[in-house]
Amino acid sequence: MTASTGQSVPTIIIALDLPTQDAAESFLSRWPREKRPFLKVGMQLFYATGPAWVARLKERGYPVFLDLKLHDIPHTVYHAVKSVANLGVDMLTLHVGGGVSMMAAAREAAEASGAGTMRLVGVTQLTSTDRRTMNEEIGIPGTVGDCVRRYAGLAAQAGLHGVVCSGWEVPMVKQAMREASVEGIAVVPGIRPQGVASDDQKRVMTPEQAVQNGADYLVVGRAVLRADDPVRAYEQIQQDITKARRI
Predict the structure, then answer these.
(1) pTM of the model
(2) Most buried by CB count within 10 Å: which residue of 102, 127, 179, 241?
(3) 216 annotated to bind ligand
(4) Number of other residues whose CB lies within 10 A of the CB of residue 239
(5) pLDDT over 90 for what percent of the chain?
(6) Is the pLDDT of residue 48 over 80?
(7) Annotated catalytic residue: which of 69, 82, 174, 243?
């Protein structure tokens, strides 16, 4: 499948999957002052640094994707989203498995907080989940694709801006959201350039493949974090996806 001619070049998000604030600041110090890449702060780093550091990232001009995967009763998620909205982050995750009422509560909280630019995206199935895990351990029947497609429709129904899914599932996710009259975004983790190990991820994809499938955001962690020259690794991925966009 080739990318639509109307699709812009996807945005790269660097996953700051690091254990401490010092480690994160050391990584960011390797970037030129004029570069402010889109950063993903996940649970590990958020729990280590707290919300104040995330707010300072925003003050310094970094776009921030806060990947907390909220999943609780609607009332609790509503107030959690109101708290996050005060940080000024650009994107926030919650689990679609929490249900439509929970997701709708998150959207209502964002709107009530005036966080109109914060995109709420629903996590469908983690890229570490395969069919055996989903069927035998989580207890959801069918294929992973079946579940992801259904969850994308639920996220659209709840008024979210899009979903998180593997690159393999982007076309079906976009179709499911369109059927719900939503032109939603697809945020794709599990991105592995050629030659980079999959590690604990199962449903991975190269940046070029994800672009051709229609991904809007590519979340890249280890390929940049572990590189000898992370800025060069990031720029190479940018070049690769720009080329893929022209195919």
Answers:
(1) 0.90
(2) 127
(3) no
(4) 11
(5) 78
(6) yes
(7) 69
